Amino acid sequence: MSIFRLACGSIPRPSPTALPIFSSSIRRSQRHISTSQRRSLNMEEYPTERIRNFSVVAHIDHGKSTLSDRLLELTGTIKAGQNQQVLDKLEVERERGITVKANSSSMIYDYKGDKFLLNLIDTPGHVDFSYEVSRSLGACDGALLLVDATQGIQAQTLSVYELASQRNLTIIPVINKIDLPAAEPDAVIEQVVMQFDLDLDSALPISAKSGLNVEQVLEAIVEKIPPPPASEVSPRQQPLKALLFDSYFDKFRGAVSLIKIESGMVQKGDVIVSHHSKSKYTVTEVGVLNPDEKPTTHLQHGQVGYLVCGMKESGEAHIGDTIYKQSQPVDALPGFQPVKPMVFAGVFPVDNKDFLRLEENVKRLTLNDPSVTVHRESSNALGQGCRVGFLGQLHLDVFRQRLEDEHDSEVIITAPTVPYKVVQGGKERVVRVPSEFPEPAELSNRKASLFEPYVNAEIIVPDEYVGSVIELLSAHRGEQVAFSYLENSNPPRVHLKYHIPLAEIVTDFYAKLKSATSGYASFEYQQADYVASDLVKVNMLIHHRPVDALAMIVHRSKSMDVAKHWVKKLKDVIPKQQFEVAIQAAIGQKPIARETIKAMRMNVTEGLYGGHFDRKLKKLNQQKRGKAKLKMKAVGNIHLPQSAFYDLMKS
Ligand SMILES: Nc1nc2c(ncn2[C@@H]2O[C@H](COP(=O)(O)OP(=O)(O)OP(=O)(O)O)[C@@H](O)[C@H]2O)c(=O)[nH]1
C-alpha cells in the first residue's frame, strides 16, 4: 500500500504554500571533510549487542528535531548550546523550522561503563514526506514516539505509530514540551498508553527544549530497544547483505549511499554489486555520520552508515536496493514499496529562453527524490516546460520554493491535477494533463468512462469545531466513514474518517481546514481507490481562443464555481486593450461563464475647449467607428504575457 499523507499542524504556522523538500545533496555535500582531517572509527568496538538503531517519529512540530539536537549534545556528538536543528540542514528546513528530508546521525553513548553506538534516524513530520518515514523505519529496531504534551495525539501520531508497529519496532512513548504551562503530561501519557496499548511505565515525560529528562531517553534507548538480531557466525564469515535506505549526492564523489548492514561486513576495496541493476562497484570509503561523515575501518552486521563506491549518477543508488559482494550473491531484501506521484503540474520558465536552465535546475532538485517524475511538456501559451509529478500539494510547494530559493528561477507552475483514469474501447489509460482528456462527444456517446482517485482521510479536531469541519468535508465531496471521540482527551476531540476525492484536497483544502479550526485540526490521508466520476474539462478562452495551459479537469458539480473563479482571476491580470475582450470558460463548445474587459477609452476630445460641441461629437463617432474596425482586426491577437500567467498562478 502506497502511503500519501498531508498533515495540518495543530498550531497555527506559516502558510503551507511555502514549505520545502527534496534532495539532500547540498546539505550532505557540506558534510564531506577531507579524509586526512578525519580519524577512522574502529567498528570492531561495536558488536551488534552494543548497537541501537532507532528513529524519532511524531506529528509535525511535536519536537523531533529539537530532541535529536539534545540527544546529540548529551552524547557529546555536537557542542551543547548550539540550539539549532543540526539535522535540518537544508536552507528551507532552517527557514521554516521543519524537516523535509530524513537524516541520520550516529552517536557514541557511555552507559554503565560500556560504549554504545546509537544510530538516530531523524524523519520528516509532514505527511507528504511519509515515504521518508517509512523507509527510515526500515533501518530501525525501535522508535521514539514523540507526542506534544499540550496537544496530545494528532492525526499523524496515529499514522506513524501504525508504520512503526507494522514493522514490529519497539516503541517508547515520549511526552514532550512538559515545560509549557499548557502541558498536561499525565493526561497525554494516559491517552497515548491507552490508544496504543503500551506499558504505562514506559512513557517518558520530557522537555526537549530545556533537556529535562532527556538523559532518561538515552537510557531507555539502550535498555528497551533491542540490538539488531545477532548472528551465530562472525560478520567476516557471513555474506554481505546491506539495505540501501537513502542516498545523497556529492559532486566530487558521486552518490553516497546510506546503508544498514543486515549481515556480513563491507570495507574499502570490496567489490560490491547492486541487486537492482547488477552493476559492480569498488568501495572507496565507508563510515558513519557523526553528524558529519566519519570514516570507519568497516561497517558490519547491524551497523548503519554511509558507503562511497563511485556511483556517478544519484539514480544508481536505488532506494530499497540490496548490496552484496561480487563473490557472494544473496537474495534481495524486501525493499520498499515504490511511491507514485499523485499530483502533477506543469513547470514553465517565465522567460522562454530559460527553459534549458530551468530543466537542468528541476532535474538537479529532483536528483535525490525517487518519488518525483519529470517529463518535457509543451504548451501553446507557455512554450516549452516540464510536467512534474509530486506526492502531494506540499511536496509541490516545497519544490517551488526550493527552485526559487536555490536556483534563482522564477517559474510558472500550472494548476495541479491528479491522475484520472479513462477507460476507452476496453483500454485503460491515465490522464495527467488536461490535453489528454477525452472530448465531450466521446463522453456523451458513452465511449469512455472516467474514474478519479480517492483517499482515506483522518481528521482529529476539538469537538467545538466538528460542525464546520464536517461542512467543509461535504463541500469537498467527502463521505463520512467513521465518527468517534478520542478517549482521555480534554477538551473532547473527535476522530473523523472520510472517503474523499484526492483532487478536492490538493488545492486549498488544507488552508480552509486550518482557518475553519483555528489551526487545531490535524489531517492526513492515504491513497485509497479509483471511483467512477462525472468529470469534465473546463477550457479557458481569451478572446475566443482556448489557452491550453489553463484547462482544468473538474467534477461537473464544481465546474460552474471553478469557471466563475477563473474568468474573474483572468480579468484581473489581463491588461485593458483598445477593444473589448471576452474571457470565457467552456465545456466543449458550450460557454459556462464569462467576464468582459471593457475597451480602453481614450479621451479623444481632449484639447477641445468651450463650445465645440459638434467637433466633440464628430471625434467620438470617429472613435466608435475606429473601435469597431479594431475589434475585427484584433480577434485572436491578445497576447497574455508570461508575467501575467505568473501573477495568475501565484494569486
Ligand atoms: N517549550 C518547548 N518547545 C519545544 C520543545 N520541543 C520543541 N519545541 C519547539 O517546538 C517547535 C517544533 O520543534 P521541532 O523540533 O522543529 O519539531 P519537529 O517535530 O522536528 O518538526 P517538523 O520537522 O516540522 O516535523 C520549535 O519551535 C521548538 O523550539 C519543548 O520541549 N518545549
TrEMBL record:
Domain of life of the source:
Eukaryota
PROSITE patterns given for it? Answer: G_TR_1, G_TR_2
Report the SUPFAM superfamilies cross-referenced here: EF-G C-terminal domain-like, P-loop containing nucleoside triphosphate hydrolases, Translation proteins
- Would you tell me the Gene Ontology cellular component terms? mitochondrial inner membrane; mitochondrial matrix
What positions does the entry give for GTP binding? 58-65, 122-126, 176-179
Catalysed reactions, semicolon-separated: GTP + H2O = GDP + phosphate + H(+)
Q: Which UniProt keywords apply?
A: GTP-binding, Hydrolase, Membrane, Mitochondrion, Mitochondrion inner membrane, Nucleotide-binding, Protein biosynthesis
The chain positions of domain Tr-type G read 49-229
Q: What is the membrane topology here?
A: Peripheral membrane protein
| GO MF terms held by the record | GTP binding; GTPase activity; mitochondrial ribosome binding
In the record, biological process GO terms are: positive regulation of translation; translation
Predominant place of localization: mitochondrion
Subcellular location as annotated: Mitochondrion inner membrane
Cited InterPro entries: EF-4 (IPR006297), EFG_III/V (IPR035647), EFG_V-like (IPR000640), EFTu-like_2 (IPR004161), G_TR_CS (IPR031157), LepA_C_sf (IPR038363), LepA_CTD (IPR013842), LepA_IV (IPR035654)
Family per UniProt? Belongs to the GTP-binding elongation factor family. LepA subfamily.
Question: What the protein does?
Answer: Promotes mitochondrial protein synthesis. May act as a fidelity factor of the translation reaction, by catalyzing a one-codon backward translocation of tRNAs on improperly translocated ribosomes. Binds to mitochondrial ribosomes in a GTP-dependent manner.
What name has this protein been given in UniProt? Tr-type G domain-containing protein
